[in-house]
């Protein structure tokens, strides 16, 4: 399920604190785990909501493409 950019930005409350906490406390393993969970969450849930439209008016018109193997 693709979500809009606004909706995705609202998800930071769930992973941003853990990310910062692991950085501040110098916990490399925790940081790696948080980054991995965050990456897979965003990969699964945060696709562009309107990729066809974005090719003409959005991010994709500038050549921005997902880097995790998803094509629009």
Return the structural class.
mainly alpha
Shape: elongated
Strands, total number:
0
Integer average pLDDT:
77
Q: Distance N terminus to C terminus?
A: 14 Å
How many separate helices?
A: 4
Q: Rg, please?
A: 15 Å
Identify low-pLDDT runs.
Answer: none
Strand content: under 5%
Query: How many domain units?
Result: 1
Helical content stands at 55-70%
H/E series: HHHH
For the largest beta-sheet, the strand count, sense and barrel status come to:
none
Question: Could you explain how this protein is built, in words?
Answer:
The structure is a single chain. This protein is an all-alpha fold and 72 residues long. It has one domain (5-62). Helices cover 60% and strands 0% of the residues. The protein has helices at 5-9, 12-24, 28-45, 51-57. Helix 2 (12-24) packs antiparallel against helix 3. The mean pLDDT is 77.
């Amino acid at each position: 399920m693709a979500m809009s950019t606004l909706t995705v930005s609202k998800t930071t409350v769930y992973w941003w604190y853990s990310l910062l906490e692991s950085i501040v406390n110098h916990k490399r393993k925790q940081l790696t785990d948080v980054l991995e969970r965050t990456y897979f969450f965003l990969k699964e849930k945060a696709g562009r909501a309107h990729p066809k439209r974005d090719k003409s008016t959005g991010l994709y018109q500038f050549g921005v493409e997902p880097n995790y193997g998803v094509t629009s």
